[in-house]
Amino acid sequence: MxxxxxxxxxxxxxxxxxxVRMRPGMYIGRLGNGNNPGDGIYVLLKEIxxxxxxxxxxxxxxxxxxxxxxxNHVTVRDFGRGIPLDxxxxxxxxxxxxxxxxxxxxxxxxxxxxxxxxxVNALSESFYVCSYREGESxxxxxxxxxxxxxxxxxxxxxxxxxxxxxxxDPMMFGxxxxxxxxxxTMVKNYSYLKKGLTLTLNGTPYKSENGLLDLVNExxxxxxxxxxxxxxxxxxxxxxxxxxDYGENISSFVNGQNxxxxxxxxxxxxxxxxxxxxxxxxxxxxxxxxxxxxxxxxSIQIQEPNFEGQTKTKLGxxxxxxxxxxDEHGTLKLDTGPTIRSYVNSFVANELDNYLRIHKEIVPxxxxxxxxxxxxxxxxxxxxxxxxxxxxxxxVYNKKLRDCRYHYNDKVTEKTQEGIERSSIFIxxxxxxxGTITQARNADYQAVFSLRGKPINSFKESRKKxxxxxxxxxxxxxxxxxxxxxxxxxxxxxxxxDADDDGxxxxxxxxxxxxxxxxxxIRRGHVHILQTPxxxxxxxxxxxxxxxxxxxxxxxxxxKTGVEITRFKGLxxxxxxxxxxxIGPDMRLDLVKLAEEESIADIMSFYMGDNTLERQNFxxxxxxxxxxxxxxxx
Length: 634
Known about the structure:
The chain is an alpha+beta fold and 634 residues long. It has 24 helices and 24 strands. A hairpin with a 2-residue loop joins β9 (229-233) and β10 (236-242).
């Protein structure tokens, strides 16, 4: 029972970095071990690079050097103005202290809240900063946010700028490691957004001459229907083309920050694309038809952006800039620039319309793509409507989904933010597995969807056949993405199948469906595969759960005598009391992702298409017997 002895002694004030360490989620979103590009160690790196990029944006320093050694120590060196020498300690350790509150110094920067570098300092086992200015330097060394030593020196051979070296704290992040593929993508994105800036990662330089156009061209997995349209204006840059894939693939950025979850600028761009095409062709095409297969990007520069959350992956601003001023009578008033929606709409309407009138050869290609989408959508819409009506009559929907309280498309408030971020749906096979997860889940933010059997192969079947499929229709209805991906109800879509051949097959069928018809779910990092333990190793005193043969062997050696080993082949074999630990805050998820050079069509053709000689040879080379699977991490 809660204690009734509530006195002044219970009131605590957390000074500076103490609050960051106690509530890291408020500052970096989540911790993680580096397996996911949204994990906290990448946010720490980004916060430091952001400061260096902001220096370049203000016209100082054309190079940023990033080094990550095999032990995951990070060094970032820029050649900007350097932190004012007497403010080095204060700038990296006292919250809400920084130069970016004054827009005379940093006009369109990413980090504006005076927290970023301090959070890195607080969440690092070791943190070192050195500022070089006009032949002098000021440095400081910290451990877990606490100052250990500092000093000043003469350094005439060093160019102006700032050096930061840090090592994320294993007490916070556990056994972590930087995935250099994720870091390379981050560095490339910075180079695309800041033409003329060279970023060097472990000795490899990255520099873009064509901005967003380079980003789109380098990330295209197949030839677009027409050369990408590249338009630039004051504080805005867009790229646009159409491909043959389903869905939309639009990258978005604010002040050089990759807004993975979009926000007001991306919503405005999507609206502007559809509106401009409708007005240009003078036909009332549906917005989803205008955007079907779109590939592109948008970047905007705004003053004092309002991001939703410290991780800055979604823009919440409504205006290009906002300022509090006083009139001649001293009354406080708010001056605002144009709304982001009106600014983006106006730019796209004028510039895209002009481009289409000049480049008339691409006009029929675009309209034919829109018409093809319209024909297919109208045909499929009727089929899906009949399928949904049939499902409602049979009351199938409620049998499939065990929903949760918070959803990804809920309105964000201080009370709902954590639940929205953690909102998840487990896609399971059969009643046994779904029953176990349902009993073990947290009903506030974990939902369960039960598949009756193996879904159809969406790659081989026609779009019409897929639309008639009861299982997939119910799944899409549960996810909320029938009409628009912006209505997605769960942040994490987790495929939870057994670790046997049937489970693997079901996993492939579900992923094939997402890859073909909802690839943006994968591109935006929403789709995961649940790792569950392959073995339980125990004696009379202790249970250990092992996710690989290596972990099993270590557990056997540690427990020594009276060891009993259980091999889990199905989720239903694990009791709900045990399972609660495997889907809790520390659950292991494998992010489903695509490498930049991978074509979705090629991947599906190889794995889910006809049984070609190439695939037969692949199967022969990788085939394992049941006995071998006992000793291999599936």
